[in-house]
Amino acid sequence: MDWNETPAELARAWSEQPVIIPSQSGELHGIFTPPAAEVSPTGICAILFSRNRWWCDRLSVKAARWLASRGFSCLRFDYHGFGESEGVCSEIHGDRPFTEDGLAAVQWMRKAFAQRRFVLSGFCLDGRTALSIIKHEGDTIEAVVCSSPEVTSYPGDVLNRVITLEKTRAFLLGPVTFKKVTLQRAVRRCFNLLRLFLEKRAGEDLIERQISANFKRDFQALVRSKTRCLFLQGRDDPQYYAFQLVERTLLARLNAEQRARITVEVWPGRIHPLDNPGTLRKVIARTIAWIDDCVRSPHSVRHSQYTSAMTEIAGGASA
Amino acid sequence: MPEVVTDKSVIRPAKATGEYAFFFSSGGRPLYAAFHPAFGTDRDYVLVICHAIGTEHMLTQRIEALAARQTAAIGVPALRYNARAHGDSAGEECELRFEDLVEDAIAAAELARQLSGKRRIIWLGIRLGCAVVAEAVRRRHDTGAVALWAPVHRGDDYVRSMLRATFFAQMVKGRRPSITVDGMLEQLEQKGEFPVVAGYVYRAFYRSVKDLELRRTLNWNGPTLIAQVQPRPTLSPDNECMRAEIEQRGGSVKFICIREEPPWTMLTVAKPQWANGELLFATKEWLDGLERNAG
Description:
A: alpha/beta, 2 domains, 12 helices, B: alpha/beta
């Protein structure tokens, strides 16, 4: 995808409107991008979640203008305690999404801009935020893109990845600073694992217990709804090692109809680290292309997708 | 003369502060801005904030908003804006040059004067935004005071620090970087862009800032705040020189040392955006004192 600003996208930039969204944590500041008048409207409002509304290479700004030039209404906004929004955010936890803020945004778009159908997307924690809205607004959410989410309630690797050959080699050959950081992490993870062993959850073995209760609740809401969902993962990301627990347990129990609404794409390599902006661009390009396709193509069980190696996309093909 | 693009852009002002956001035109593009009015004051100043550049802008955006609100609360209206190819503004990163940033800053200053009805500008620069302030001050005759937060003294240092961050990002993962910073600069020159943490550095921008030197540009002799944000307890040689030069020209300089330095170029995912109460408080005190002395 060409990320350079097209005349159509520049026109959308001219039409953007700052908005203030009331929420439990105070006023949230955002930008509404109306759909282009010269294309047929999709009737869908895309809410692009990110910490502050142009976090990471301004991809949500560019994505909003791209989608708006194709007939979507779009909203991006700052979570409470981020950017211009009120409130305080003292810590971020991958398993504690900003659900209240997301809900406030959906409800405000309905009230102030008469939006009725939504598509939500986000990367990592922002993907979890998108997913967590379905429980409350399932009937109005057409689709969700959840890229590289954390699915455990603790930081660090899942049990079968705590010690690997690759990690041992990196530790032995790595610089002293890296060794120190690794040892500090190892101590913290021992405590996490201890907590996991002591935790009791009815009917769940140790493998399944690693999946956070919050994620399971949001996933069950997704299954109960009619919402379509894309999970995007990088094969070598710790987030995907954890997501494999979901594949082995929660996804494996779905019936054909339920399974058909959920697409899992696994790309070669890593998509999570922020020091690879090229990959982040590909992830967002895929996200908005999927949203566009998803809204334009009717859903059927035949669309069931489980793509374990999207080499053509990860290799750089444009969306 | 810049023009506010749309009245419709203001859905309603924020309830707590009366601030309102809008887009204005600069260089033929819509730029995002937020104006923070101050009521019941006859002070003849308006604050204009020149933000940090690139990845650093993501880190410092919140403290910028907090500073503007705090300033308006003590009776000085404030305008903050996103330069082209930054934040919510339009524009191509790959085409951005230092001169564009200066043009946007000057347009923002004009707008701030229009909206506030004030005659004098207090400039607040953050990181490389300090160099933008220095150039804007040189070109205008309505500057009342200058605040410099964590000033970047040389454009070349700034770009190198962005590149070094990619180095560290790899080392934290236990990988040995395969290329030196000089090698990265070569690639930047050859390819036109180079990936850094959470973004890119572009050749056009690098060429426009690499010879930039803050002290050479800042020809200023008025009230100045230098906020050094580094672990060291005393002013760095660069900041000390800048202070001495401004004082030699007859300016008054207040300096503060904030020892909690954020990872400027390493966008952290597990922490909220940077904000520092000590820096905000010291800036407020300086602004208050400035008003008293001026009054």
